[in-house]
Amino acid sequence: MANIKSAKKRILVTRKATLRNKIVRSRTRTAMRKVVEAVGAGDAAVAQAALISACRTIDKAASKGVYHKNNAARKKSKLTKLVNGVSA
After folding, report:
1. pTM of the entire structure?
2. Fold classified for 8-87
């Protein structure tokens, strides 16, 4: 355990940020899973709507620093390819 006051504060701040990041990451994974499930069901309209929602969620996570911008771009690209495969 930390003895210095600033180190104790950093532990609290880190704990709070970790929790916030975990929530954002979970929300993003859920949105991505909805896209994959819609593609699996073969429903192009639902998949397209889920893709738009997932891209917004991924962009928000990247802007908050939870994901690196290239990681976010890679996730969006992967989902877009899936959806385009169903609608084709």
Report:
1. 0.87
2. Methane Monooxygenase Hydroxylase; Chain G, domain 1 (1.20.58)
pLDDT tens column, 24-80? 999 999 999 999 999 999 999 999 999 999 999 999 999 999 999 999 999 999 999
Residues 6+ apart with CB under 8 A from 67: 28, 58, 61, 75
With b for 16 or more beta-carbon neighbours within 10 A and e for fewer, the 7-29 pattern comes to: eeeeeeeeeeeeeeeeebeeebe
Q: Which two tokens stand for residue 80?
A: 């877009």
Alpha helices in 1-68 (DSSP H): 5-41, 44-63
